[in-house]
Amino acid sequence: MNSMSRYYYKDDCDPYSKKDFDPCNHHIDPCKSEKMAATIIKCGCPSSITVPAATVLGATFTLTSLTINSCKLKNPCIKLEFASNLVAAVAFTGSINFQVFKQCRNQITPTPVGPAYTFQLVALLASQTFSFFVCDCDCSCFNDCCTYTVVATITSPVTVGTLSINNATLGAIVTSGSDACC
User: Taking a C-beta distance cutoff of 8 angstroms, is the pair 97, 159 a contact?
Assistant: First the structure.
């Protein structure tokens, strides 16, 4: 795909022929163009953390986060996809919950999105991928930017060995069923 493939139009695919194209910014202003598809794709930066040996029940680790502004979409629905690589240098035994949380501008505390995903490890001495997805179609605070964060929580009494959670990445596909401009 070329660099202009991110601009999809219902009638034609040439953004340079549109009067709303801004050549200085190389993009279409979504509030000026009514024919732009109402979809956003966004990827977060990968990160890594290490769960040390003898980590106790309830310890939390923030793995990755992503901020999404869906104010230009009507009735947005967000599919959040998390992926990581779990690597144990020393045999690791324990149980970890992975959960997505959402915090919008006027919220004091983050709210969970979807269920918690449990990963139980019994003497893992290698690497293994772990991924899941959740959907957030709750439009109660979609007039602002919202930050989605994936948090790992230890759910076993104590862990044995160390575990690295590498390349933890959160991506999102945001879409609406109606025009992009409010």
Answer: no
